[in-house]
Specification:
The chain is α+β, with helices and mostly antiparallel strands and about 270 residues long. The protein has one domain (about 30-265). It contains 7 helices and 8 strands; from the N terminus they run βαββββαββααβααα. The chain has helices at about 45-55, 110-125, 150-160, 170, 225-230, 235-245, 250-265, and strands at about 35, 65, 70-75, 80-85, 95-100, 135, 135-145, 205-215. The strands form 2 sheets. It has a 6-stranded mixed sheet with strand order 2-5-1-8-7-6. A two-stranded antiparallel sheet has the order 3-4. β6 (about 135) and β7 (about 135-145) form a beta hairpin. α2 packs across α3. The longest helix has 16 residues, at about 110-125. About 40% of the residues are buried.
């Protein structure tokens, strides 16, 4: 990924956050950040998400990366949306998401907080959201282990991060055998993503933000492929739009077959 070419551009904040002042730095030595996107944050064209993508992201520099995701959250529409899951961390279970750089450089906790809040508002589709977490999701941060900015970024994040309690559903709604997707400090428990182009080169940014949503488990298990596919028999727009956007899970082939078989039986 090319290094962010911004030279001194500053973006208007959605909300002024109360944080400690930080020492100014030069643009040549600022951390480069981005967002890790799975699902409809990339393609849904409602006003708020479109504005977030257009105003905050360098869409032309988006890259496809390997990421542990699956369909696992039951939505209000009765179908399933994507969630991060460490049960999908092995190579044959990985899915594909998108990494997109931010348009604006972060030079303080204030700037980092603005990006997190924009993401929270896009995820919740609520322009009035004043926090970066709720009962059903939280924005989290992932640090590049090779970044020279990690110490500063950690300090900035600690000023604006959510205070996640031990009983938050992101910690409790998971397989007993899998690691929680996020820590109590809202650090994402993910490996730093690698590109899907065959190069296995790590993503060239200093940090990533992502919105992790709470999965819907039944008897401690994720929904099976048949249940996921059957929920889309009437309308599989979400599934089709993810696939056409290059956002995929290891379940996709089985889901597609199930949908087609069920529709063939209906026609027959």
């Amino acid at each position: 990924m090319p290094k962010n070419s911004i030279s001194g551009r500053r973006c208007a904040p959605p909300l002024m956050l109360s944080v400690m002042p930080t020492k100014p730095t030069t643009n040549a030595d600022l951390p480069l950040g981005g967002v890790l996107i799975v699902g409809s944050l990339w393609w849904r064209k409602d006003e708020l998400r479109s504005r977030w993508r257009d105003e905050r992201l360098e869409l032309g520099e988006a890259e496809l990366v390997w990421v542990p995701i699956r369909y696992g959250r039951l939505s209000q529409s009765g179908s399933y949306t994507m969630v991060f899951s460490n049960s999908c961390s092995r190579a044959h279970r990985l899915g594909i998401g998108r990494v997109v750089p931010f348009r604006c450089l972060s030079q303080s906790a204030q700037d980092l907080g603005q990006e997190a809040l924009w993401l929270a508002r896009a995820e919740s589709n609520d322009v009035s959201a004043a926090r970066i977490h709720a009962l059903w999701y939280s924005v989290g941060i992932l640090f590049n282990p090779e970044s020279k900015h990690r110490r500063n970024l950690t300090a900035w994040w600690d000023q604006i991060r959510p205070d996640l309690k031990a009983d938050h559903l992101l910690f409790t709604s998971r397989l007993k055998s899998e690691r929680p997707i996020m820590s109590s400090r809202a650090h994402l428990n993910l490996r730093w993503p690698r590109r899907t182009d065959g190069s296995s080169v790590p993503c060239d940014l200093d940090f990533l933000l992502a919105a992790a949503t709470v999965p819907t488990l039944t008897s401690g298990k994720y929904p099976p492929v048949a249940k996921i596919a059957d929920a889309w028999l009437a309308d599989d727009e979400y599934f089709r739009n993810n696939e056409s956007s290059g956002i995929r899970t290891a379940q996709d082939d089985r889901i597609r077959r199930r949908i087609q078989e069920a529709r063939d039986l209906t026609i027959g």
